Automatic annotation (TrEMBL):
Belongs to the cation transport ATPase (P-type) (TC 3.A.3) family. Type IV subfamily. The keyword Coiled coil does not apply. Residues 22-73 form the P-type ATPase N-terminal domain. Its main location: membrane. Residues 1189-1199 have a biased composition (Basic and acidic residues). This is Phospholipid-transporting ATPase. InterPro entries: ATPase_P-typ_cyto_dom_N, ATPase_P-typ_P_site, ATPase_P-typ_TM_dom_sf, ATPase_P-typ_transduc_dom_A_sf, HAD-like_sf, HAD_sf, P-type_ATPase_IV, P-type_ATPase_N. The keyword Phosphoprotein does not apply. It is an enzyme of class 7 (translocase).
Length: 1199
């Protein structure tokens, strides 16, 4: 219960209002007190950070420390600090946004006086005054407004993503409370529902003056709305702060990690286990050696103080080796990963091809931690309004009395193609025409001017049958404010064709018909709703004639026509089918003349039904249905909801990349389905589109079951080579459904989705949805959007991306692995909650196929190389342990150990991780199949990790034993023995640096000046530092620190050493080169094939240019003949020079490689993953393409 009491109206609202209700919101994660402990707790959830902290503690123990403690603490503190600063910066902006909202000013009625208060100080029960264009501060009960009958107009873009205006109305008893003196005496009580996230429902009762008044959503102004076209209004605060419906629909800020991060956590644990095993082996070796051999040398090699047995010596040796061998996972790995991710983020921010000049909006990477996950997306969940569409409706075509208008025709009367449009229709005859309106068929205007009665009646209906409000700021300058953009488009069309809606009052509508002002008496409005799917008005003309005008969905209106309309109905239906095939939104128009006596009787019954205390809605619906029968058909309209530029192409390309796109929208089903056809998600070629509209659990379950049965029956009838039972016995149901023949789509409404998402039905829903090529969820709440995303994350284990532009998309954006905000017309809530933002949906294609794929490729290559080089570096210590009495002696100079990962090998791998490419960006967009390895996680997984480790161990074995074997018998130039510890250390270190430098040269696929500089510069830096460290000067200054004095100069002056280094390098690198050569020749990947075709095209262009230079001008035949070179004909006959389409090329590459990609995909599908891509069709297309030459007309090449 909510009661007005006292000057501030501090109220109680049921039991949940016992606590103070603050309007302050909080989206940040930290504050000054909690930042350090909470942030450190989050960072130490990373297994690697905990691992390095443990090593640091070990290094602080003198008895076991073989390396200085600062070698670990400095990089650890650096990593923690960099991450903390980044997190603090992100949270600072969240605090800034919260403060900006909480400190907005609002007028609150206190003790009968309006006072300015900050939003955060508004409380439940306060009465607030709002003025035009102000945001609503909390969820309010509308009490009164400046408009007649307590009406006000709001824009709900922040809630449901729709920019069109909606009407709200105060209950009649409070609509007269227009001044503060009356409102100060208001002492009503409100009993209502507790806080919830249902945006379209509200239930409550106002008790005032011993009467009770029902309250509904039509009486509420929700936080996030904006007051429009209303001078002022007053409202009573019902819900505040976190209890508002806007905040109830906002998901929590979640800490997002990539799949590579999670894999690395697992790998670090495995490496730590491997490290312990090596430590145990070496510790056992130490104990045995000390027991058997070392005891004999106590005079020369006494045990350390406190060591009294070989067993205890082995125990200490274990910890010493743990410290020495910890470089298998150096902390520099995590610093490098953050640097690479930062570089990738800047590339996104700097991409001019993702910059929208119209809005002056660049793409923005709002996080640096998810870039490589952009290359692994399998599901995209998209909002519709403002994301796929511009939310701009355009009157495109119409059918009047069986004649279709709107097709653009050329001078011969044929339908003109795109790009051949003539000038638009000239509306200069009409001074009230909207100059922005364009129509391309002049015959409709001619019919109006010739006085065609059907056309006149058609536009008269459009100018009368609506709820649009007109505002005339200056003479002849009209502005229409419509509840839906559809209505605005229809009224604007009528306006331009000479039937101008000018003004309205509650009882009249004034229209200028071809320059003549006519005022119609408005007798009744039979409003639109989702069940009726139509709207009607009853008007009385100046001549006294009463007529009903109706517009609505064809499925509803065509059933209500008079039987004499049958022929016209058939023709109009054909036009409707044609319009729907083009993805246009259609409405049917009809009218009916009413007798005066009938209308009087019907009006009286309508008045009684309106005041009925019970079953009011049902009684009104029956009366509406009665009068809306036996109507006369006028025609139909077709409206285009303009898609954003490039949406159909983007969806097509992403589908070819095996990315599944689901549309989750708060819009009605008809609108969403029409947009589905417009953006080519739905097509007429689909086998069937299933529509789930059940209102109960049983109905929804039955509809889903029937959909699955139809898919399986169709699959059996098309003959897939094996029966349903065989499939069912061999794999899971999900995989069976995904293997069905035909293309299907699923459309489900919000009330049905609520049942489908229940625990006992969610798997059935997911199985059915994943078997469909397209899924559209209509009338869904923001929370349902998040639940759908969570469902796919839970069962499919796939990377999800959510994209939207309104506050209603925030919860979905936060739930998905990756959230993308469209910075459009609907506020910045989605952008603030997102990980990436840009201004148009089409940029998503470039974000995923170029930046995402490259980021994934670079990160995987970086990690593979990093683990390889560190195992090669560290495992040498392990082999050396068997030859140094397991004494924890290091092979290398301690400064080499310190600088190896920081200086000698850090920059080349960073350059590869930041700049590397396998194919140019144009090819990434042209061949979407290149995206699939990321979805299948092929480039870095446990298998690839073990291959890298094996290569590193192999390299370490050769790195140690080749120099060891050479040094055993080698002598210097002067005949002295070459073998000594320091010379051996320098030789192994030099071999290591050269081998890993050659290896990264082999791994680099895209060479830049930076790559060259870093690789050769690192080698030069190694030799410069080596000679400096071994110089006499440093030894004289720090004799205890630099003990390798003169060693580098002496060792590297020996030819034997250089031959040893060369031999080691060749033996380490040659197997890798041979393997890659054979793999490229025998089993190339798609990227290899794309690169090959690109090289062939370049060669052809070069040959063509040479041909032009040497060919004689006088004879084309001679020039043509002499342009051929030896082997060119063979190249043509082989087909290797053919320019293949992306689909065909993916199959061409699949000659050796599609089999392994498809095998993995099937294997993955068997584990429950989705495989809804048309790759199978691609393979079939390819088989035909091998028999015919597939030239691509987009880039002709002279041959």
């Amino acid at each position: 219960m909510l009661r007005a009491a006292g000057p501030r109206r501090l109220l109680s609202l049921a039991s949940w209002l016992l606590r103070p209700q603050s309007n302050c919101i909080k989206t940040s994660k930290y504050n000054i007190v909690t930042f350090l402990p909470v942030n450190l707790f989050e960072q130490f959830q990373e297994v690697a950070n905990t691992y390095f902290l443990f090593l640091l503690i070990l290094q602080l123990i003198p008895q076991i420390s073989s390396l200085s403690w600062f070698t670990t603490i400095v990089p650890l503190v650096l990593v923690l600090t960099i991450t903390a600063v980044k997190d603090a910066t992100d949270d600072y902006f969240r605090h800034k946004s919260d403060n900006q909202v909480n400190n907005r000013q609002s007028q609150v009625l206190i003790s009968g006086v309006l006072r300015q208060e900050q939003w955060m100080n508004v409380r439940v029960g306060d009465i607030i005054k709002l003025e035009n264009n102000q945001f609503v501060a909390a969820d309010l009960l509308l009490l009164s407004s400046s408009e007649p009958h307590g009406l006000c107009y709001i824009e709900t873009a922040e809630l449901d993503g729709e920019t069109n205006m909606k009407v709200r109305q105060a209950i009649p008893v409070t609509s007269e409370l227009g001044d503060t003196s009356k409102l100060a005496l208001f002492d009503g009580e409100v009993i209502c529902e507790p806080p919830n996230n249902k945006l379209d429902k509200f239930g409550g009762t106002l008790y005032w003056k011993e009467n009770k008044y029902p309250l509904s959503n039509q009486n509420m102004l929700l936080r996030g709305c904006v007051l429009r076209n209303t001078e002022w209004c007053f409202g009573l605060v019902i819900f505040a702060g976190p209890d508002t419906k806007l905040m109830q629909n906002s998901g929590r800020t979640k800490f997002k990690r990539t799949s590579i991060d999670r894999l690395m956590n697992t790998l670090v644990l495995w490496i730590f286990g491997f490290l312990v095993c090596m430590g145990v082996i070496l510790a056992i070796g130490n104990a045995i050696w000390e027991h058997e051999v070392g005891v004999c040398f106590q005079i020369y090699l006494p045990w350390d103080e406190g060591v009294h047995s070989a067993f205890f010596s082995g125990f200490l040796s274990f910890w010493s080796y743990i410290i020495i061998l910890n470089t298998v996972v150096p902390i520099s790995l995590y610093v490098s990963v953050e640097v690479i991710r930062l570089g990738h983020s800047y590339f996104i921010n700097w991409d001019k091809k993702m910059y929208c000049a119209k809005r002056r909006t660049p793409a923005e990477a709002r996080t640096t931690t998810l870039n490589e996950e952009l290359g692994q997306v399998e599901y995209i969940f998209s909002d519709k309004t403002g994301t796929l569409t511009q939310n701009i409706m355009v009157f495109s075509k119409c059918s009047v009395n069986g004649h279709s208008y709107g097709d653009v025709q050329d001078v011969l009367g044929h339908k003109a193609e795109l790009g051949e449009r003539p000038e638009p229709v000239d509306f200069s005859f009409n001074p009230l025409a909207d100059p922005r309106f364009q129509f391309w068929d002049p015959s409709l205007l001619e019919a109006v001017k010739l006085g065609d009665p059907h056309v006149h009646e058609f536009f008269r209906l459009l100018s009368l049958c609506h709820t649009v409000m007109s505002e005339e700021k200056s003479e002849g300058e009209l502005f229409y404010k419509a509840q839906s953009p559809d209505e605005g488009a229809l009224v604007t069309a009528a306006r331009n064709f000479g039937f101008v809606f000018r003004s309205r009052t509650p009882k009249t509508i004034t229209v200028h018909e071809l320059g003549r002002a006519i005022t119609y008496q408005l007798l009744a409005i039979l409003d639109f709703n989702n069940i009726r799917k139509r709207m009607s008005v009853i008007v009385r003309s100046p001549e006294g004639k009463i007529r009903l005008y109706c517009k609505g969905a064809d499925t509803i209106l065509l059933e209500r026509l008079h039987p004499t309309n049958q022929d016209l109905t058939n023709v109009t239906t054909d036009h409707l089918n044609e319009y729907a095939g083009e993805g246009l939104r259609t409405l049917v128009l009809a009218y009916k003349d009413l007798e005066e006596s009938y209308y009087e009787d019907w009006s009286e019954r309508l008045h009684r039904a309106s005041g009925a205390p019970e079953a009011r809605e049902d009684r009104l619906a029956r009366l509406y249905d009665e009068v809306e029968h036996d109507m006369m058909l006028l025609g139909a309209t077709a409206i285009e909801d303009k898609l954003q530029q490039g949406v159909p192409e983007t969806i097509a390309i992403l589908t070819l990349a095996n990315i599944k796109i689901w549309v989750l929208t708060g819009d009605k089903q008809e609108t969403a389905v029409n947009i589905g056809y417009s953006c080519k998600m739905l097509t007429d070629d689909m086998t069937e589109v299933f529509v789930i509209t059940g209102h109960t659990v049983l109905e929804v379950r039955e509809e889903l079951r029937k959909a699955r049965e139809k898919m399986m029956d169709a699959s059996r009838s098309m003959g897939n080579g094996f029966s349903y039972q065989e499939k069912l016995s061999s794999t899971k149901l999900t995989s069976v459904l995904e293997a069905i023949a035909g293309e299907y789509a699923l459309v489900i409404n919000g009330h049905s989705l609520a049942h489908a998402l229940e625990a006992d039905m969610e798997v059935e829903f997911l199985e059915t949805a994943c078997a469909c090529k397209a899924v559209i969820c209509c009338r869904v709440t923001p929370l349902q959007k998040a639940q759908v995303v969570e469902l796919v994350k839970k069962y499919k284990k796939a990377v999800t991306l959510a994209i939207g532009d309104g506050a209603n998309d925030v919860s979905m954006i936060k739930t998905a692995h990756i959230g993308v905000g469209i910075s459009g017309q609907e506020g910045i809530q989605a952008v603030l909650a997102s990980d990436y933002s840009f201004s148009q949906f089409k940029f998503l294609q470039r974000l995923l196929l170029v930046h995402g794929r490259w980021s994934y490729l670079r990160m995987c290559k970086f990690l593979c190389y990093f683990f390889y080089k560190n195992f090669a570096f560290t495992m040498v210590h392990f082999w050396f342990g068997f030859f140094c009495g397991f004494s924890a002696q290091t092979v290398y100079d301690q400064y080499f150990i310190t600088l190896y990962n920081i200086v000698y090998t850090s920059l080349p791998v960073l350059a590869m991780g930041v700049f590397d490419q396998d194919v140019p960006e144009q090819r990434s967009m042209e061949y979407p199949k290149l995206y699939e390895p990321g979805q299948l996680n092929l480039l870095f997984n446990k298998r690839e990790f073990f291959i890298c480790i094996a290569q590193g161990i192999y390299t370490s074995v050769l790195m140690f034993f080749i120099p060891y074997g050479v040094f055993a018998d080698a002598t210097r130039d002067d005949g002295a023995q070459l073998a000594d510890y320091q010379s051996f250390a320098v030789t192994v270190a030099t071999s290591l640096v050269i081998v890993v430098s050659v290896q990264i040269g082999l791994d680099t696929g895209f060479w830049t000046a930076i790559n060259h500089f870093f690789i050769w510069g690192s080698l030069a830096a190694y030799f410069a530092i080596l000679f400096a460290m071994h110089s006499d000067g440093l030894f004289q200054m720090f004799p205890n620190q630099f003990r390798f004095v003169g060693n580098a100069q002496n060792t590297l002056a020996q030819p034997t050493v250089w031959l040893t280094i060369a031999l080691t390098t060749v033996v380490c690198v040659m197997p890798v080169v041979a393997f890659r050569f054979l793999k490229l020749d025998l089993k190339p990947e798609l990227s290899d094939t794309v690169r090959y075709t690109q090289l062939v095209r370049k060669k052809q262009k070069t040959q063509h240019r040479c041909m032009r230079r040497v060919g004689r001008v006088g004879s084309r035949r001679s020039g043509y003949a002499f342009s051929h070179q030896e082997g060119f004909g063979e190249l043509i006959m082989s087909g290797k020079n053919m320019r293949l389409s992306s689909l065909a090329l993916s199959g061409f590459a699949a000659r050796p490689s599609a089999s392994w990609i498809e095998t993995l995909r099937k294997k993955k599908g068997g584990e429950g993953s989705t495989a809804c891509s048309p790759s199978g069709a691609a393979d079939k297309t390819l088989k035909g393409s091998r028999r015919t030459r597939c030239w691509d007309a987009r880039e002709p090449t002279s041959r």
